[in-house]
Amino acid sequence: MEIKEYLNSKKQRVEEALERYMPKPTEPFGQHIEAMRYSLFAGGKRIRPILCLAAAKTISEDPAVATDLMPICCALECIHTYSLIHDDLPAMDDDDLRRGKPTNHILFGEAGAILAGDGLLTLAFELICSADDGSSLSSAQRLKIAHLVAKAAGSFGMVGGQALDIAHEKQDYPFEMLQTIHRSKTGALITASVHCGAVAASANSQQLEALLEYGRQIGLAFQIVDDLLNVTATTAQLGKQAGNDEVQGKATYPAFCGIEETSRRARLAVSGAKEAIADFDSKAEPLRLLADYVYERSH
Amino acid sequence: MEIKEYLNSKKQRVEEALERYMPKPTEPFGQHIEAMRYSLFAGGKRIRPILCLAAAKTISEDPAVATDLMPICCALECIHTYSLIHDDLPAMDDDDLRRGKPTNHILFGEAGAILAGDGLLTLAFELICSADDGSSLSSAQRLKIAHLVAKAAGSFGMVGGQALDIAHEKQDYPFEMLQTIHRSKTGALITASVHCGAVAASANSQQLEALLEYGRQIGLAFQIVDDLLNVTATTAQLGKQAGNDEVQGKATYPAFCGIEETSRRARLAVSGAKEAIADFDSKAEPLRLLADYVYERSH
Lengths: 299, 299
Fold this sequence. Notes:
The structure is a homodimer.
Chain A: H1 3-21, H2 30-40, H3 47-59, H4 63-88, E1 97-98, E2 101-102, H5 104-129, H6 139-153, H7 158-167, H8 175-200, H9 205-232, H10 235-238, H11 244-247, H12 253-276, H13 285-296
Antiparallel strand pairs in A: 1-2
Helix pairs in contact in A: 1-3, 1-4, 2-5, 3-4, 3-8, 3-13, 4-5, 4-8, 6-8, 7-8, 8-9, 9-12, 12-13
């Protein structure tokens, strides 16, 4: 299996689902819906939905599971997109460029961007909790998924991590704090994406533990590579301002450990992720390729 | 039954539950949790949770229903509080005073206030979807409640209404648009609060329809009275800047119809609410008193 081909086909599937589940710009709410759609369809690798699908596939090849996961995949992407919109706000990182395009508040104003984020976050839970009588997912499974996503996205996860990140700008802090910020701000939702797939496919407790460890390691690898790219890639390659972590006085892995050691730690996390699922059969191949892919992005 | 006594006793019960369900400020997320708690515990009449409890009580006197509703009551209050924090932001209504105290962004900064709101919104769904094995609410009931709350709070409800409100500032628009803004920005979550109680108490379809109509009318009355108070009350009475609707160029009922006609429309909505539940027995007495109370606030 070619990872690029796999990613492209899954990305297309996720984007078709987003098109299906996202509201159309209808009056009188047209402008607000446009603001949400703008950032949701501004590109993006759809890594969280793809991790969710790949994790479920590892346990169950029933195509109904993948189909019924689509609203949840879209919810994960809504939450990720809302977090980018709010992070880019002038009161936060004050970024003008994201994925090579003007950020949401540049086009829709600050109020419009705050509300686009609020709308996407709320829509995520509407999608997860929507009654779908034909779904193979039970109410208990959906409820569990909504709960774990809320926890990962909330004050002890993504939102809390962003609060820590902002509070520590231009300050000296220990390496452990950087790890806490990464784990909560980025890691929690990536781990939750894998967790959603495992719950939807009714993983047993041993499978679940292995997948969660995979999710933790892949989340870590992802963030370390992001830090690395912010230092080594150009603005054109990133689609956002390169080197802005340093400008904003943010600590990063390379600032603490240097580029070599950061690269080594990324490889270590990728190995850890693959090791966690070593006992799984060939159905786990997409997860293994995804782990390699995360590292390959770094060079 | 005295309405003041009823409101006080329910308010106390809701605040005890908030104290139980809200996270404590634990490191490293202490400052962020403090920001959420500040606005949640800055006062407030707790009308949405009380409407939810009163609606459930109308159908079922089983004390377990009221107990199991408490996380949902807290979720409604979290969503209401988050909406106030984001509405008060400099990019939105730019208010310094709320409930007689400095607004969230005055104390915690803009980024802190945006994230406190995001955290409260996310926490609401964590509370509704939390697994509680001892609860009398089924997974299907919880899921339905999470879904209807998300819909009411989202882009075709509260968030969409706020987007319309901001987009129409200092503009001329027809009276129908004012009604749409009110219905989505304020009415939807109030109606949803009643709806949550009805679902939790397993209302039949006839009871549900009556309660929803009550919810729609009470939501309308509530917003009309708010408009009226913004014109007629003092800043000390309101706990926020009196007359700021006019300063911000916002259309209001009094601006369209004058104070007399606005007052008449508030009375009409209150009668409509009571009429919707006319067939209910004495268990609906709290809902009737709440309807009268909404009007009494206006003078």
